[in-house]
Each structure stands twice: as C-alpha cells, then as structure tokens.
Amino acid sequence: MSLYRDEGVVLRTQKLGEADRIITVLTKRTGKVRAVAKGVRRTTSRFGARLEPFTHVDLQLHVGRSLDVVTQAETIRPYGEALATDYPRYTAGSAMLETADRLTHGEKEPALRQFLLLVGGLRTLADGEHEARLVLDAYFLRSLAVAGYAPALEACAKCRAPAIRAFAIVAGGVVCGGCKPAGSAVPALETIALMTALLRGDWAAADASQPRHRGECSGLVAAYLQWHLEHGIRSLRHVEREPV
Questions:
Q1: Least crowded by CB within 10 Å, which of 72, 97, 161, 178?
Q2: Cα–Cα distance for residue pair 17/37, rounded to 1 Å
Q3: Tell me, what's the pLDDT at 92?
Q4: Which residues of 132-162 are buried (b: 16+ CB within 10 A; e: fewer)?
Q5: What pLDDT is stored for residue 41 in this prediction?
Q6: Residue 217 burial (CB < 10 Å; 0-12/13-18/19+)?
Q7: What pLDDT score was predicted for residue 70?
C-alpha cells in the first residue's frame, strides 16, 4: 500500500455516499489534493471533526486510482473554531479558502508559497489583531503576487513613469495620464498607499488608514483578483466592507 504524509488546510468538502466525504486540501509539499475520508459523517467517526474547512491538519493518505484515501488525521490548529463566532472573520476566511482553491489549478502540483500564505492569513484572522477586511485584502494581493499577477503600484504599469493618475485593471495596476485607458478608476493616493502597505505587510500603516480608503481599496482589490481569475469569488458577496 502506497502511503504518504503531509500537512495541509482543508479548503472544502462534499458528501459522498451515505457516510463518506471528499475533502479538498491544500498541502505543504504535495499541493492541492482531493481525497476520500471514509465514514466521517458517522457520529462514531474517529476524525470527522478534524477534516472540516479551515482546519490545519496533519494527514496520512493512501494513493488511490482517482482519489486518495485519508487513513489518519491529526489537528494542528482548528482555525474554524475562532472564526465561526465572528461573522466578518468567518466570511473573510471563506473567501481566502475559495481563492486558494482557484489559484492552485492543478492537483498535486507543489504550491508551498500559496500554502504558507493561506496558513498565515488564517492565523492572522483568528488572532484578531487587524480588521478582517484588511487581512483579506492583504491575502488577496500577496497570493496574486505569488501567482505572478502583482499589481503595479509605484509606477505606471505600461511606461513606468512615476506620475500616477489612475488604476486600470486591464493594464495591470496604476497608470499615468498618457497611458490611462477609458473606464479606469481614479482612487485617492491614500488608497494606493494602503494597497502598497498591505502588499508589503506594513500593518502599522494599514491599521492607521481611513475607512473610506479601506472601502475603495477593497473594491479595487476584489475587481483585480476576479479579473485575473476570470471567475467571481462567491464568498465575497457575504464579506462586510467598509463604507466608501
């Protein structure tokens, strides 16, 4: 029997038959894995609660023909427990899980940096030191950067001129007056500074930002993410936003 061990975060689950579940896990070494967890919907299951979304878990799996099979599961940290009682943090966390799933396209393709970003994002959300939407936007920006889609924020995305006049999703970030395409957003300079702070992990600057700039930042980041994914993030409709 071919066994392997890895740690990962459970992204989503779906029912299979009367007692089983298929779990999708973003793992540290293997990448995204879909596996069958047998009997976990029974009340007598040994590890059913350990295989819920948001759980950072240590797994042993048996390689199967189409789906691997979970044979052991030990909880490393159950982030869901801290998030379930706080609606803004729970919905932000759900958007993180969905984004991680969409950004890791192929199964069993190593995605260590995406895994580390997800664990770090969930830990920061659960700790509650920063506003939930700021944490989510920081996660979006950094996960996009790891995937190769980092927005230009300090110079024109087209000509590299330092004079910033607008933000154009199709151009890849901020643009100057000469390169500004029709329909570009014209955010406040403080909003662009907030996006830069979130991308860099400058929490002192991010926490000091104004609600209207946070709201404007969230709208731009969400639009930029979904344009690159070519698909909407369903969880985002439930995420509470700062008023613009």
A1: 178
A2: 11
A3: 96
A4: bbbbbbbbbbbbbebbebebbbebbbbeeee
A5: 80
A6: buried
A7: 94
CA angle 200, 157, 217 (to 5 degrees): 50
How confident is the model over 105-124, as pLDDT tens digits? 889 999 999 999 999 999 99
Spacing of C-alpha 190 from chain mean position: 24
Closest alpha carbon to 139 in 151, 124, 155: 124
Mean pLDDT, residues 138-159: 96
**Confidence class for position 43, pLDDT limits 50, 70, 90:** low
Q: What is the dihedral of CA 26, 4, 126, 218, to 10 degrees?
A: -10
Tokens 């260590």 map to which residue?
Answer: 112
Q: How far apart are CA 94 and CA 161, in angstroms?
A: 38
Yes or no: domain 3-80 corresponds to CATH 2.40.50.140 = yes
| Domain limits, the chain | 3-80, 130-238
In angstroms, what is the C-alpha Rg of the chain? 20
In DSSP notation, 201-243 reads T-HHHHHTS-HHHHHHHHHHHHHHHHHHHTS--GGGGGS----
Residue 54 main-chain phi, psi, to 5 deg: 85, -10
